[in-house]
Amino acid sequence: MRNKFEEQLTLLSNMLIEMGELIEKAITLAIEALEKQDIVLAKQAIAFDMEIDQKEKDIESLCLKLILQQQPIAKDLRFISSAIKMITDMERIGDHATDISEITIHLADEAYVNELVHIPQMAEATAKMVTDSIDAFVKSDLELAKAVIESDDIIDDLFVTVRRDLIEMTHANSNNGEQAMDLLMIAKYFERIGDHAVNIAEWVIYSITGEHNNV
């Protein structure tokens, strides 16, 4: 009986890794599409959303099955409940990759007023946070999870810089206002992706230690 349960826990772990790979691909495509103003890449990023949503449903179903049928011990229950929480944040990351890509498509026919500098920096930093949070889960790496949480300050600082730059751009020429708002929304989505990566890292810590800021 325990062997069967262990197999199902391994399946759950592998499904979480697969979902992580999907959101990493979606973010990577969204970032490349933004920088190149490439509609094809943006649509490819959006196409991942349905697959990510289905993976969330499959993982949630497995988690509930394990809880209801197997009566897991405390450590396993923490792992399963953490997985349920993590997939919610992972799904939201996929949604934000779609949001960014949709704005990219909207902006594709107009040149950027200024060269994008800080937004790509935000994008790179948030993508690393997502990758590291998933790696922390895969490796049960407590220190890596903590590093993800600490790196959120970098994202917040970059967002402040982006907002300042866009305000200055609009003051210099009010005709830039619409593009500035779109780019600010993109920066905001990257900031939210960073927040979700922090949530994932916090649930990784909970799955290992049983401690969580909100538990």
Task: Give structural notes.
There is one protein chain. With 215 residues, the protein is an all-alpha fold. The protein has one domain (2-209): Phosphate transport system protein phou homolog 2, domain 2 (Methane Monooxygenase Hydroxylase, Chain G, domain 1, Up-down Bundle), CATH 1.20.58. Helices cover 87% and strands 0% of the residues. It contains 7 helices and no strands.
Structure summary, number of beta strands: 0
Mean pLDDT across the residues is: 92
Distance linking N and C termini:
30 Å
How many strands, which pairing sense, and closed or not: the largest β-sheet?
A: none
Sum up the structure in keywords.
87% helix; Methane Monooxygenase Hydroxylase, Chain G, domain 1; single chain; mainly alpha; 215 residues
Furnish the topology, listing elements before pairings.
Blueprint (H helix, E strand, L loop, with lengths): L1 H35 L2 H32 L3 H34 L10 H22 L2 H9 L1 H21 L4 H33 L6
Helix pairs in contact: 1-2, 1-3, 1-4, 2-3, 3-7, 4-5, 4-6, 4-7, 5-7, 6-7
